[in-house]
Amino acid sequence: MKTTIAQVPKYEGQTVTIGAWLANKRSSGKIAFLQLRDGTGFMQGVVVKNDVSEDDFGLAKNMTQETSMYITGTIVEDKRSPFGYEMQVKQIEVIHEAVDYPITPKEHGTEFLMDHRHLWLRSKRQHAVMKIRNEIIRATYQFFNQNGYVKIDPPILTGSSAEGTTELFHTKYFDEEAYLSQSGQLYLEAAAMAFGKVFSFGPTFRAEKSKTRRHLIEFWMIEPEMAFVDHDESLEIQEQYVSFVVQAVLANCQLELAVLERDTTKLKAIKAPFPRISYDDAIELLKKKGFTDIEWGEDFGAPHETAIAESFTKPVFITNYPKDIKAFYMKPDPNREDVVLCADLIAPEGYGEIIGGSQRIDDLALMEQRYKEHNLTGEAYQWYLELRKYGSVPHSGFGLGLERTVAWLSGVEHVRETIPFPRLLNRLYP
Questions:
Q1: Please, what are the averages of pLDDT over each run of 10 residues along the chain (430 residues)?
Q2: Residue 390, domain CATH
Q3: Which of 22, 118, 170, 366 is 20 to 30 A from residue 209's alpha carbon, by CA?
Q4: Which residues are CB-neighbours of 288 under 8 A, at least 6 positions away?
Q5: Cα 259 to Cα 417: distance, rounded to the nearest angstrom
Q6: Whether 257 contacts 264, CB under 8 Å
């Protein structure tokens, strides 16, 4: 019976064959312990000299790291193992012998590991992070599908930008200027006017020369957009979505969280509703915490977000930022012209902003005024303006950064570990 490591609990007491790689090994006299991996998980294979042929025991003792094989044996329960099962090996068939595998069990520097990212992904820690990423994606589709959203794929090549062109990658689109998308939002607003509730999941690009642990040049965004939904309703959807994803990871990634030694007690508390603090109150809170230089009208940096988050055990919404530091499409607060109906969701434990969202302007005259204030050419944005001309409705949306969310839930320090092949300021390889 050929199976995978993930499936072996179904075959306790039975003999199975698994295609696997050797992650590590140790041997002592007449017994060898093989740490096996097959992509679905990690498991120990125990090779006892008296239970296998002389050739197979020689293979087990001398096999090199990352050698591939078909390995056959009986599945038994092993309560000492986090996985809970191991294989009592009967036969080994080597497929390919790996020689001088560069990532040995010793410590390696980060740059060395990043240069070998194509191999580093095989490690137990990186495997755990990617499995958590996969669960967040799976839960995202489940949440939006079961709540009546339609997935829409916005273009990656665009002729205009959502938030200005200063931090965009420019390219030639035949004889026109084009940009790599920094957000699919504008296109999703058009889709929301056709389908009501939509979401996208795809890559976005920021030509931002930042080296912080929270920034990537290429990252993935989940962007829902909703017709007939106001700002407060959008906040409720955001906290329900984040709560759903966190609980899904806790339920389905217990082994991976254990590998990463993640403190799950903090994650278990992540359930809606989330606390909310206005930008005005956030400024006062920061001043009390020692940020005496911060002035009303300034945007928050990483230290500010971390300081605000320290006052809460759950993610916290910072609402109603000043109009002048936010994007042109955000709807002004009807009670205050100087702030807009927006919110950033700040994750606990210093992981920073994971969601930015707002209610969008739905008034044609006001949007035309914003175009003039932001020097937006009517030609490039004419289609976006027409959304306010033909059946405009109140609508809201938000974007969640996948990699920051993965970093927060898995507890890793830097977002470079949260995407298979990170694109950083100094890295386009591999």
A1: 97 98 96 98 98 97 98 97 96 98 95 98 98 98 98 93 74 93 96 98 93 94 98 98 98 98 96 98 98 97 96 97 96 97 97 98 96 83 94 98 98 97 96
A2: 3.30.930.10
A3: 118
A4: none
A5: 15
A6: yes
Terminal alpha carbon distance of the chain: 37
Q: What is the pLDDT of residue 167?
A: 84
- Global confidence as pTM: 0.97
Q: What is the pLDDT of residue 165?
A: 58
Task: Indicate whether 368 and 336 sit together in one domain.
Answer: yes
Cβ proximity of 346 and 305 under 8 Å: yes
Domain range for residue 259? 117-417
Half-sphere exposure (Cβ direction) of 386: Cα atoms closer than 13 Å: 8
Are residues 409 and 272 located together in one domain of the fold?
yes
Structure tokens of 93? 């068939």
Same domain (yes/no): 76, 135: no
Domain identity same for 226 and 311? yes
Structural domains in the chain (count): 2
Tell me the C-alpha distance between 152 and 227, whole Å.
14
pLDDT for the residue 377: 73
Q: What is the pLDDT of residue 7?
A: 98
Q: Residue 380 has what pLDDT?
A: 81
pLDDT of residue 89: 98
Question: Do 278 and 175 share a structural domain?
Answer: yes
